[in-house]
Design goal:
Length: 256
């Protein structure tokens, strides 16, 4: 069975001090749920302090982005080895990076390759806009994003990364995909695309998260879907009690 993974993307929230306080508030309760991998992804300036606060626990830390070059004149960017000093995971290709900052499929692919070379585990985001969904293009759009993201990667590399399906129309809107929608895309599109590119074993190894207005009230039904292996959550990860509830309900949904 694939080990579920619940990751909190704090986005541009929490100072270093606030991030440490949040981690300290949840560590005790999270310790009871070792059957689910637990990850927090703070803003860059909070990453070192949050990493130190999580030291000695099973809580893992991820970054929200990186750049593909190892060093150089890239003002404002952060290299993979800089991230690896404090993190195990890195989010790549989040819709906000694509929509607001012009990130391309090619750039996402380059970042994935650089992250893997540095020993990081990428959390690779894919998802469609509301307009694409209404046009009936969800399947083709997400399929093509998966194919572009994984270009040039071996089956072994792909088996170890995380995919995250995040419908853009559901992020921060309060509109979550139905559990059936999440299952259809996570299994019928994302996992199917990996199977098409590689093989059954690789496709079944990859963990696929759902993200988009996940909260303690809907997480159980979403995580009960067989092809949904966890969540990449925003707002609900900013309160200790809510994040603990997400992890606890994932344990219950998966029967762990």
């Amino acid at each position: 069975m694939r080990k579920p993974i619940m990751a909190g993307n704090w986005k541009m929230n929490k100072t270093a001090q606030e991030g440490v306080a949040l981690v300290q508030a949840m560590l005790g309760e999270l310790a009871a749920y070792g059957s689910v991998e637990r990850v927090v992804c703070p803003p860059f300036l909070a990453v070192p302090d949050v990493s130190r606060a999580a030291e000695g626990s099973e809580l893992r830390v991820g970054a929200q982005d990186l750049y593909w070059e190892a060093s150089g004149a890239y003002t404002g960017e952060v290299a993979p080895e800089m991230v690896r000093e404090f993190c195990d995971y890195v989010i790549i290709g989040h819709s906000e990076r694509r929509e607001l900052f012009g990130e391309t499929d090619e750039g996402v692919n380059r970042k994935i390759i650089a992250a893997l070379a540095a020993g990081l585990i990428p959390i690779v985001c894919v998802g469609e806009t509301r307009a694409l969904r209404e046009e009936g293009r969800t399947e083709s759009w997400v399929h093509d994003q998966v194919v572009a993201a994984l270009a040039g990667l071996s089956a072994e590399q792909v088996a170890g990364l995380i995919m995250a399906y995040e419908p853009i129309w559901a992020i921060g809107t309060g509109l979550a995909a139905t559990p059936a929608d999440a299952e259809d895309v996570c299994g019928g599109v994302v996992r199917a695309a990996i199977r098409e590119l590689y093989d059954d074993a690789t496709a079944e190894s990859v963990r696929i998260q759902y993200g988009g207005s996940v909260n303690p009230g809907n997480v159980f039904e979403i995580m009960s879907q067989p092809n949904v292996d966890g969540g990449l959550v925003g707002g609900a990860s900013l309160k200790a009690a809510d994040f603990v509830a997400l992890v606890r309900e994932t344990v219950r949904a998966k029967g762990l």
